[in-house]
Amino acid sequence: MKFQRPKGTEDLYNQQVIIFSNIISKLVTVAKNFNYQEIITPVIESADLFLRSIGSTTNIVEKEIYQFLDKGKRNLALRPEGTAGVIRAVVENKLYNNQKQTLKYFYYGNMYRYENPQKGRNREFHQFGVEVLGTKDPLLDVEVIILAAKMLEALNINDYQLAINFFGSETTKTKFNHALSKALMKVKSKLPLELQTKIKTNPLRILDAQEFQTLNLAVPEIAQFYSPEEKAYFATITKMLTILKINFNINQTLVRGLDYYNGVIFEFVSNSDALGKSQNTLIGGGRYDNLAQELGVPYPYPAIGFAFGIERLMLLLANKPKFTETKKLDLFIISQFQTGLSLSLLLLNDLRKIRYFVDGNFSLFNDKQKSNLIKSIQTTNNLLVLEKVNQATCYQLTKKTKVVIKFENQEQLLTKIIDLLKISEVK
Fold first, then answer.
1. Beta partners for 335?
2. Under DSSP, is residue 235 helix (H, G, I), strand (E, B) or coil?
3. Cα 338 to Cα 388: distance, rounded to the nearest angstrom
C-alpha cells in the first residue's frame, strides 16, 4: 500500500528545514530582545473557542475550520490561528492577575485551515506570532509595529509596504457597519453573489475582497465615525511612525479576516514577485481589546498582536545564502582498518564533550573511496582518516593541505586533533 501526505501539507527536509530553522531562530532572537517570553499552547482546542473568538461569519469559521468530535464526543478543532489559544491560556491559568503587568508572549507552530492550497498557503501551515496583553496605548501600538519591522529587517526583507487602518471602539465599528451595510444595499446588484450574502452578516469582509476593490463603488469610510478621542489616538500612531521614519499608508479598506479586531490594524505586504499578488501579505495584526474579557477575564484587558506565515517567508528567502547555508563540520572521521571504527566512536564522543561539531562514518573505506570522498565532501573543514593503528592523516580541506599524525594511544591522538582544530579556528 502506498501512502501519500494529505492534500495541502508539505514534507520539509534538507535545505527547506535549514531555511525554516534559520527563520525561527532570527524571529525568536528579535522577540527576546524586546523582552517577549515564549508560550506554547495545544494544537487542538475546543471548537467553541474559535467559533466565539474569531467570529461565526468569517471565512475561517464558515469554510475552513478543521472541526471534529473526539471519542468522548467533545467538539474540538485544530487551531486555525494562534491568538485565541494564547488568550485562552492566559485566562485559564490566570496569568492576568497583576493588572499593572504587561504580558508579552511569542509563539510558533502548526496551524490548520481547510482551504484551497496555493503558492504560500497550505492547509497545514506554520505561524510565528506575538501578543501583548494588559496595556492600551498608541505608543505601545507603535512599538509592536516596530517589532514587526525589526523582524523583517533581521530576515533581510526590505521590499515591502506597511498599510494601516483604525477601527476605533466597538461602538464606532458598529456605526460604521450599519452605514456600510446601508450603502452596499444600494449597489447590491453590482456585487458578485458571494459578496451579496455578506452585506447584512459581515459587510466589513466585502471591503478587502478583490472583486469589490475593482468596482470602485462609493461607500462610507470609517474615519467619518471616529470620536475625538479616537482621532487623537490614531493621530499619535501616525505621528510617531512618521517621526521614526517608518513608511506607511492609511488604507481605509484594510479589514483583516478576523472579527475580534478593533483599534489599529496593519499589514506588511511584500513587493516581491516570488509571492505574487494574491498571497503577498507577510504580517497581519492589530488590536483586539475585547477578546480576553469575552473569554473570561473579569475586567477589561486590552491586547494587540501580529503573526507571520512562515511558508511565505521561506519562498522569499529560498535563494538567499545567509538562510540556506549550513554550518560546516569541524571534523569528519573515517577509518581504513577495523579497530579504527571503535576508535572513531571514542574520538567523536570526546570531541563532542568539548563542543566540537563532528561526525563520522562506521563503514570501512579503501584508498579509492577515501580519494572520492576528499574530492566530493562539502560539509566539513577537516577530514581525519585513520590509516593504521598508530597513524592518521588529517586533510585540512579549507587550506587544501594534509597533516600526518603519529600516535601511541587514543589520548595522544585526541590531543593532536584538538591542537589542529584550534589552529583551524584561528585561521
1. 364, 386
2. helix
3. 10
